[in-house]
């Protein structure tokens, strides 16, 4: 039995789905179901006894304690977070509450549980904390990519709150010996990505005939990883990582935003041409830049490859094609997210 927090979000849902394909080990999925949590992403698990969903907050230490005692997991994987940089600029408080205070309460509950374990259960227990490359700040054009020893220089309320949570996790290992692992991953893309983030937003807006907003000059660089590769990396770190260590995860796919948008437009031109046969690139609009916009992220993923033998399976070309095709094939998922209908989904469809 493992616990996953935030398993109704983009990466968490992909992780739970893939986990239950790869393993028969049950998952207790604890998610607050904020605007970003969507049980419709887990629809294929309806009736699957290996998936136990609990609506709850990682900051609710009593709830987490009760669940730990009841299910006795061998590992906890913490995906739960407020994750959108733009939202953190407009309203940072929820980020401090969940990412910092919530992680603290989760750590306290897990520490108390782990303290009571004995023998192999205690020795084998792991808490894996899922973090981001944004904690390292912004790179100049010719700087080397972020390694595990790069200095933390978070620039947005989001990345600062993630950095704070990473530090708390680290301290629980150093001070109490809690067996923790931390992963710092680059930008993910793929199925079930909420259309407030760049790639799904561009796909959804393009198909709706809306403008495709590019912040500033569109030359900011991100390092893109297909979400299922992130999930396989987390499984690998959980299985073979050394506790107390951090692992950077990335796809060696640095690209300026404008290139990403042009690539998505080219795929849509091929797979779902506009009725007027013009390119979707005609919908691109340059808009006011994000406040404090980080210029470049890049992950040096050599440690996880060298020590754990992990490499991404997808190239950007294969991953982005799958992603665009997924959105074309799953229009209803997107429409429900946009209309808010997914909020009613649990009551009407979910039996667990
Ligand atoms: P997301 O916003 O899609 O999902 C977050 C999930 O957490 C949602 O289901 C939400 O309901 C849940 N949640 C929020 N607050 C909660 C709380 N207090 N208690 C329990 N559940 C809560 O985010 P995502 O993109 O799937 O990111 C997952 C994790 O991975 C985050 O920790 C994020 O920082 C990290 N990360 C994301 C990326 C990326 O590109 N998306 C890259 C690297 C790391
Ligand atoms: O690097 C990992 C991080 O990647 C994760 O920790 C975050 O949770 C995740 O949201 C993501 O953060 P970004 O800010 O990089 O992702 P976002 O999709 O919001 O933006 C990607 C780039 O595209 C960024 O440079 C801002 C730009 N952008 C974004 C949007 C939504 C635009 O130009 N236009 C847009 O409309």
UniProtKB/TrEMBL annotation:
Domain NAD(P)-binding: 3-323
CDD domains on file: dTDP_GD_SDR_e
NAD among keywords: yes
Keyword field: Lyase, NAD
Needed co-factor(s): NAD(+)
Superkingdom of the source species: Bacteria
GO biological process, one term: nucleotide-sugar metabolic process
E.C. no: 4.2.1.46
Protein name, entry field: dTDP-glucose 4,6-dehydratase
Organism: Methyloprofundus sedimenti
């Amino acid at each position: 039995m493992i616990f996953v927090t935030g398993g109704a979000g983009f990466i968490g849902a992909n992780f739970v789905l893939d986990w239950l394909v790869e393993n028969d080990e049950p998952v207790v999925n604890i998610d607050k179901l904020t605007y970003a949590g969507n049980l419709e992403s887990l629809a294929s698990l309806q009736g699957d006894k290996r998936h136990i969903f609990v609506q709850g907050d990682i900051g609710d230490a009593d709830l987490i304690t009760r669940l730990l005692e009841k299910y006795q997991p061998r590992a906890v994987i913490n995906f739960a977070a407020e994750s959108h940089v733009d939202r953190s600029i407009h309203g940072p408080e929820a980020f401090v509450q969940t990412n910092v205070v919530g992680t603290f309460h989760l750590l306290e509950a897990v520490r108390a549980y782990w303290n009571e374990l004995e023998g192999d259960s205690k020795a084998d227990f792991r808490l894996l904390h899922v973090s981001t490359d944004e904690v390292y700040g912004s790179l100049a054009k010719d700087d080397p990519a972020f390694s595990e020893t790069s200095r933390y220089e978070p620039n947005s309320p989001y990345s600062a709150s993630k950095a704070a949570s990473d530090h708390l996790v680290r301290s629980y290992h150093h001070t109490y010996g809690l067996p923790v692992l931390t992963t710092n991953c680059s930008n993910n893309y793929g199925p079930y990505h909420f259309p407030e983030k760049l790639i799904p937003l561009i796909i959804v807006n393009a198909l709706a005939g809306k403008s495709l907003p590019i912040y500033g000059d569109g030359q900011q660089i991100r390092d893109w990883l297909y979400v299922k590769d992130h999930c396989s990396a987390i499984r690998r770190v959980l299985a073979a990582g050394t506790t107390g260590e951090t692992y950077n995860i990335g796809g060696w796919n640095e690209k300026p935003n404008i290139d990403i948008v042009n690539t998505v437009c080219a795929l849509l031109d091929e797979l779902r041409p506009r009725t007027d046969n013009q390119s979707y690139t005609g919908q691109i609009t340059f808009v006011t830049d994000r406040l404090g916009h980080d210029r470049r992220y890049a992950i040096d993923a050599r440690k996880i490859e060298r020590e754990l033998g992990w490499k991404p399976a997808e190239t950007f070309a294969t991953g982005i094609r799958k992603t665009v095709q997924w959105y074309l094939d799953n229009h209803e998922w997107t429409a429900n997210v946009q209309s808010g209908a997914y909020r009613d989904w649990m009551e009407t469809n979910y039996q667990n």
